[in-house]
Structure formats: C-alpha cells, structure tokens
Fold Putative aliphatic sulfonates transport permease protein SsuC.
Amino acid sequence: MKKYRSSAIICLLFFAAWEGIARYIDAMYILPSPTAIVKKIWELKDILFLVHLPATLAVTFEGLGISIVFGVLLAAAMSISEKVQRALYPIVIVTQTVPITALAPIFVLWFGYGIWSKVLVTILITFFPITINVYDGLRSTRRDMEELLFTYGATKRDIFIKLKFPASLPYFFSALKIAVPLSVVGAAISEWLGAQAGLGYFSKRMMTQLDGAGVFAPIVILSAAALVMVKIISVLENKIVKGRNEA
C-alpha cells in the first residue's frame, strides 16, 4: 500500500484544488466540480452503466481484439520476411498520419451508424502500437542465440516459437497497456462523431444542453474503465511473463 500513498495524496490534492476552483468560478456549465460530476453519475447511473457503457465497451473490445490479431500477424510477417517488412512498414507508419477525426465521418458514411464504423476507428488507432511493439520484440532476440539453435538443428519455426515468441511477450503486454486506453479513446471519438448510443454520444448530447457535469460524467467512467483494463493486463503480465522467467 505504501507505493500508492504518494499517488493517492497527489490525487486528493488535485481534486481538492479542482473542487475549490470550480466553486470559486461558480459556472457549472464550464467547469463542474468533482462532487457535481459524481452526483450526476449517481443520478444517471442506470442509463450510463446499463445502456451507454456496454455500447462503448462492445466497440472497444471488438476493435481491440481485431487489432491484436491483425497487429500480431502483421508483426510476425514483417519479422519473418524482410521483403514484407520493406513493403508494409512504411504503410503502417502512413496510417498514423491521417487524422482520425477526418476518417471517422467517412466510415459513418460508408457503414452507417452501426457498430462497424466505430470499430474501424478503434482498429485504426490501436493496431499501430501493437504491431510496432510486437515487431520490435520479435527482433530483440540475440543473433548468437539464433545461430546456436541453428547449430543444434532447430528450424525457423522452432526458433520463432521457442526464442522469438517468448522474447516478444513483454513488448506485447507493453503494447496492450498503450492500446487499451487508445481503444477507449477511439470508441469515444467515433461515438462523438456519429452514433446512437455510447458514452461518447452521451457526452456530446450533454454538451448541446450545456450540462457540464453531464459532459464530464462519461469521461470519468471511460477513464475508470481504462484503468481497470490496464490493471488486469498488468496482473496477467506478472503471471505470464514473470512465471515464464521464474520457470
């Protein structure tokens, strides 16, 4: 518990300062206080947690799941073949130069307000850190270790499974810790630009009503959801990566 004490103190000071500034300004539509936001979440808990949160999490999990599969396969292909790496690596980089806010309306135009227009936005945001980190992890193995396994008769498949794949696991979990918050952001952005449900959609609706606490309430829930998911990933990382190292 001691390692979290400093963070807890900083958070308490931050929220106390926020509460004081918000009360001093006394303009809830501009800067609602933390207590007002918590009150709003409690008042709207049913619609927030039973309607809009599940809609956002569905987009988040589907987009993140596809990104993991697509990103890992792409990273593996680039690590196995130098020709594939030279052909695809620049394209992967270019995908991150296009503004998401410009593509999201196009996806809505193509796929409507259904889930897939929002999933595509999430994929576009999250597959890049997964691909690049896993690719770096697969390339992190020492050349002399690969040559040693070759001398013992190991095939490229054996080296990939027994050497490169385990070496890439820390990089993979680091990529997930980056991609999870980005997936939540991507889902919210896509809902903000075009949706019929979701926390991003709800925040936009509250903004049109000049309800500051209503705008901040979904943001707080999204942040909490991202923190919980990152914590789960950290627990899995400790069990899988450290378990393999200890074994």
About this structure: The two ends are 28 Å apart (CA to CA). DSSP finds ten helices and no strands in the chain. The CA atoms of residues 177 and 230 lie 6 Å apart.
